[in-house]
Amino acid sequence: MPAAARAHTPAGAEAFARYFFAQFNASLQQAKPDLLGGLASDACKSCQAFIDTAVEYRTNGQHYSGEPFTVATVGAIDQQGNDETRVLVSGVQHPGAVVDASGKIVQQTKYQKGQFSVHLKWINGAWVAEELKVVK
């Protein structure tokens, strides 16, 4: 994890959110759910869905070809004391595909813009994703 993402500051929370989405991308591209391990609490249902997708890809010998989500901007939107904050992550999903071990496309994704509200908590000296919601 980058040093900036380990800072107990609003800027640290923003850096953590960028790191979280980089790990999300890598977990789907490499079918490695453990890349998200320790970055989210058990309460984060969306985070668990990301992990479950990476597990499914690994089980089926598949992976995501391309970058699942490109982060454009990250900004703190709400500080709730020193140990909780929410950040808004904006970006795009580019057209991509889930492929099997032979390179055959098993699922395609379309271009779409996206925004996520990410609730972060400072727990045991690190930021952890507590909740992740799509913002419409």
From TrEMBL:
InterPro entries: DUF6318. It comes from Oryzihumus leptocrescens. This is DUF6318 domain-containing protein. Residues 1-131 form the DUF6318 domain. It comes from the Bacteria. It holds the Pfam family DUF6318.
